[in-house]
C-alpha cells in the first residue's frame, strides 16, 4: 500500500505571517479547556487581546466553567479566524494550543495588560476591576493553521511570539509615543485606515503597538498590520506608522 501524501505543507514565512495576523487580529475566540469533573473538552467564547510580546490574553470571571478548568489544568486551545460570506471552511483559521498563566493584580505586568486590554475592549471598563475577574496569558506551545482548502501548516509556539529584546522598553513608551504621533499628525489614523483599505466605519484609532506591528480599531472592526521587520524601539514603530500612512502608493 502506497504511503499517503502528507496533508501538511512546508511552513514558510507567508504561513507564519498569516498565523500571527489571525491570532493578533482576533477580538474574540473560541476556547477549549478540559472539564475537571469529567475530563471532557469544554468550549466557550472569550474576549482576546495581546500582550507586548504577542501572547494572547483573556479576561475571565472566576465563576465561569472555563476559568475553573484552567485553574486545574492550564492546557487550552484557541480557535481564531472569522468566516465571511459563503462556505465558512474556505476562510483561514488558526488553532493555537496554549498553556494558561494567571496574571494577578500583584503581577508586575498586570497594569500593562489591563491597559492594552481596555484599549481593544473599551466596554470592559465596566467589569475589569471586579474582584472575581482575572487575566490569563495563553503562551502558545504549537499551532495548526488552515489557510483554506489544501493549505494546512503546523507551527511552533515560538512562531507566534515576538522575540525582541526591545519588548519591555517599547511597553514602557508605547502609549506616550503614539499619543505624540497623533498630536503631530492629527490625520494619521484616518490616513492609515484609507491606505490599509479598512472597512467603512466610524473613526479609526490605533489601539495597540508592539515591535512586530500595530492594531487599529473602529467599533466592532479590528485591523492588524505586521511590519516587514521588527522595530527596535517605540520611535521606530512610530516612524514605520508614518511611512505607511504618508508614503506615495
Structure notes:
With 249 residues, this protein is α+β, with helices and mostly antiparallel strands. It is built from six helices and ten strands; from the N terminus they run αβββαββαββααβββα. It has helices at residues 13-24, 65-72, 110-120, 167-184, 188-195, 234-246, and strands at 28-34, 41-50, 56-61, 75-80, 93-103, 133-146, 152-156, 205-210, 213-218, 221-226. Helix 4 (167-184) crosses helix 6 (234-246) and helix 5 (188-195) crosses helix 6. The chain is globular. The termini are far apart.
The SSE order reads HEEEHEEHEEHHEEEH
In the predicted model, the low-confidence regions spanning at least 5 consecutive residues are none
* Percent of sequence in beta strands: 25-35%
* Coarse shape: globular
Structural class: alpha+beta
Main beta-sheet strand count, sense and barrel state = 6 strands, antiparallel, barrel
Query: Number of DSSP strands?
Result: 10
Record the strand order, biggest sheet.
Answer: 1-2-3-6-5-4
User: What is the terminal separation in angstroms?
Assistant: 55 Å
Mean pLDDT reading: 94
- The percent range for helix content is 25-40%
Radius of gyration: 19 Å
Q: What is the tally of helical segments? A: 6
Observed structural traits:
single chain, 249 residues, alpha+beta, six-stranded antiparallel beta barrel, three-stranded antiparallel sheet, 6 helices, 28% helix
Which helices and strands appear, and what pairs or packs with what?
Blueprint: H1 13-24, E1 28-34, E2 41-50, E3 56-61, H2 65-72, E4 75-80, E5 93-103, H3 110-120, E6 133-146, E7 152-156, H4 167-184, H5 188-195, E8 205-210, E9 213-218, E10 221-226, H6 234-246
Antiparallel strand pairs: 1-2, 1-4, 2-3, 3-6, 4-5, 5-6, 6-7, 8-9, 9-10
Helix pairs in contact: 4-6, 5-6
